[in-house]
Automatic annotation (TrEMBL):
Protein name in the entry: Double-GTPase 2 domain-containing protein
InterPro entries: DO-GTPase2, P-loop_NTPase
Top-rank taxon: Bacteria
Residues in Double-GTPase domain copies: 84-302
Pfam family, one: DO-GTPase2
Origin species: Flavobacterium ginsengiterrae
Length: 332
């Protein structure tokens, strides 16, 4: 660009940029009406060549538009950061999805004591499962707060993601929580169907939801505990006794008295497992028990590795040349 075109004059009628002649017949370099000298403009242009004059806009991370994460999505996330996989099992109606919905709502309102919500790669999935709570008020509880879980692919698990920060030490934690139809647990117990349960092999914790109302009911108690005993046996058989910590989550505790005492025999029967019992109330109309009761304890339990194995480590060192062990490795 010619330096003459860069001169700027205080005279509104100046035609120097068009004619190259000052209307007052002044020298362009020494004209008292000039705003800046031509030499300064040229020097600035040379010195600043290639510089960035505007700062890049701040790019805030946006929530994902996806629903529950497929296996491939979960694997990609786990390649970038350490995630705790929590497998949630339970027959229909025991409150698996309600537990997830209540956990999300507590985090969204900053009411899960000790934890702060940071991110979710499945925000729309959480919004979908909490849709029923939009109609809930203290005077009228909807017949069903959460929708029944249905899988797009009935052979593949879906995952919900939460990234949290523990307030006391600032430690960050990524959770991948399964949201599965209760029918999967039924087929595991009744037919020992395990072809779609490979995710259990990567789980750091297994939650088993049981309706506390069924334990309070004397006519259902023995049968419900028997079914839990059967489920634990199926899990041990499938995982070849390499079982992570198990948390029996007793739901609907706003409608029942404490019932954990009824599980002492079950725990003795499966003393080779690390079992913890936590009573929760995902939603509540009991004025003495707040909605979300027990969920803080459930999440805090995930901060600790409770994995317990009982198989003989020496036996696992026996070499079998007929098997290429690298092919047995699973990321997920």
């Amino acid at each position: 660009m010619d330096e003459e075109t860069l001169a700027i004059c205080n005279q509104p009628d100046c035609t120097f940029s068009q004619t190259g002649i000052c209307v007052l017949n002044n020298e362009p370099v020494s004209c008292p009406d000039r705003i800046s000298s031509l030499e300064d403009v040229s020097s600035a242009e040379e010195n600043n060549s290639g510089d960035i004059y505007l700062e890049a806009p701040v790019d805030f991370e946006r929530f994902s538009s996806s629903f529950s994460l497929a296996v491939q999505d979960a694997q990609n996330l786990m390649r970038n950061r350490y995630c705790k996989v929590v497998a949630i099992l339970g027959v229909p109606g025991t409150g698996k999805t309600a537990c997830l919905a209540s956990l999300y709502l507590l985090l969204a309102h900053g009411r899960l004591n000790g934890f702060q919500f940071l991110d979710s790669k499945s925000i729309r999935a959480f919004e979908e499962i909490t849709g029923g709570t939009r109609r809930w008020n203290s005077a009228n509880l909807p017949e069903q707060l959460t929708v029944h879980t249905e899988m797009q692919d009935e052979r593949i698990a879906g995952y919900l993601h939460l990234r949290l920060k523990h307030r006391s030490d600032g430690k960050k934690m990524d959770l991948l929580l399964t949201d599965l139809p209760g029918e999967w647990t039924l087929t595991l117990m009744d037919r020992n169907r395990t072809d779609r349960l490979d995710f259990l092999k990567s789980a750091e914790r297994i939650w088993i939801t049981i309706n506390a109302e069924h334990i309070m009911d004397g006519s259902k108690r023995r049968y419900t505990i028997h079914r839990a005993d059967l489920l634990l046996g199926r899990i041990k058989e499938f995982l070849e006794y390499d079982v992570p910590g198990i948390c029996i989550v007793l739901t609907h505790c706003d409608k029942a008295e404490p019932v954990s005492k009824y599980f002492s025999e079950l725990i003795r029967t499966h003393n080779d497992l690390d079992i913890k019992i936590i009573e929760i109330a995902s939603f509540s109309q009991n004025p003495d028990i707040p909605a979300g009761f027990g969920l803080e304890e459930t999440v805090k339990d995930l901060l600790h590795m409770r994995r317990k194995t009982t198989f003989d480590f020496a036996a696992s060192l026996v070499r079998d040349d007929s098997v290429r062990n690298i092919l047995k490795f699973q990321n997920f």
